[in-house]
Amino acid sequence: MLFGSAILGVLAFLPHALAGDGPSMWLTNGRFFGLANDEQQHEMYRGVPFARPPVGDLRFRKAQPVQPQCGERDAKVFPPACIQSADNTDQSEDCLYMDIYRPYGTNKNSSLPIFVWIHGGSWQGGSATTISWNLAKHAREDGRPFIHIGIQYRLNAFGLLASEGMDQQDLNAALSDQQEALRYIKKNARRMGGDPDKIVLGGSSAGASGTALQWLYSNPEEKLFRGIILGSGGPLQYPQNDVKDYDGPDGPTTKLINLANCQRDQLKDSIQCLRDMPLEELRKHTTSVMSGPGHYTAWPPCFDGLFIKERASDWMKAGKQNKVPIFVARNRDEGTVFTPAETKTEDDIRKLVTSVLIPQTLDDGVFQGLLDAYPNDPSQGSPFGTGDNLFGKDPMWKRGAAIFGDWKYTSTARHALRMAAAQGVDAWGYLWLVSGGDNGASHTADAGMVFRADDPPEDVRTSAMAIQRGYIRFISDLNPGNEDGTPWQNYKDVANILKFDKNATIIQTDDYRSAGIEWVLNNLPAWKK
């Protein structure tokens, strides 16, 4: 269901008789009335705006700070998601909201740590409401309470449209949404009961990509966060395509302009045509462009030259990222859920690994080198450790899943840890091994244990609680700690990670599958990383 911005604006400013019950807190843009959750012992404030609605002339533009307000506002209902292709999701262009969860008894003098979570969804879908908040409950029970905040950001073309017809400052608007949310949180931290100097930023999948880009390119002088958590993703997860390529013959922006009949003599006029287009019509055309082959993200963050001043690998090699501790989570079989079941040929794999490149081309020699690093041997494919079991698919599927998982996810996790350690920064990492079925320990499989597990199955309880406590203690203390016996390894001292299997913890030198992963890391320019 699509909501218009005018309706949302009316709902936001409810009269006192309707809004003025339940717990409340004053922020720079008003007094918010939320809900009390006795089960989790938390106050919940849903749909708190942190930026001006990106509608009308603000469509496709850089996020603008929310205006100060003195009124009373209702914060009891989840906000609509940002515009995306899913038809079963309440959504609106007016979507720049956050959900805030804080423990009972929190006041402006509590100075609690703040955990800010960026949701995933391939930069195309998802919302702040897709994560469970059990982690905050367990943190309170562990004696390390914190404020948990989920933020929303514009998606697909609405947040990441790229064209030489746009003002440079408006490129990567989704990243400016995330930054504006962080600035709002830092500014209001005391009012929320938090400490503005104890903000940890984290995310999973595309949320990890966003978190990593903030880690790399945010201005260190702003001190928007003091630590980061990367779950199933990182700074090398997506290529940073050149802006001009989006305007090429096969570029996604060109496709969108043609579908919308917005061809004009000047690109800036074509962009304005899209800006003026009715929402339903623009969403329809954007969805058509997004329905491309394989794991296709039509508009990942681009190389804008203003926020992203240099490609990620070069930026990190020069040590220009924020010098803050990092905590990195990955799963053994990150690529299985993205590899089409009908993958049967090397050409199918080629389409998979070029699906996020613009244009979707790759040098023949580079591709052959990738294939050579990952032989077509089912026993070496993903799900790893399953021998010759093909799970009813062609052997090439396991090869493709191994390649895609390492190329997009495992390599970026290893690289992030290495680059942090090279700067003498504290860094910890783990690998989740517990299989969830035919896809193995698949993409974000560990997140269910971290965020939703109230009473995990007996055979994984010890491991689930160990990673959950690792999160909590990193958020609280910037160190996952080992007082519970979990032997966390600081990567800056020794390049080890922890592997978690069914109630088994294994210290692992972070060099597994080195032939393939090192080949990927040695050829990053081929993928504009």
UniProtKB/TrEMBL annotation:
The entry's keywords: Hydrolase, Signal
Pfam family, one: COesterase
Signal peptide, first to last residue: 1-19
Protein name: Alpha/beta-hydrolase
Domain Carboxylesterase type B: 30-505
Record-stated family: Belongs to the 'GDXG' lipolytic enzyme family.
Recorded superkingdom: Eukaryota
UniProt keyword Hydrolase present: yes
InterPro entries: AB_hydrolase_fold, CarbesteraseB, Lipase_GDXG_HIS_AS, Type-B_Carboxylest/Lipase
Species name: Exidia glandulosa HHB12029
GO MF terms held by the record: hydrolase activity
Signal keyword on record: yes
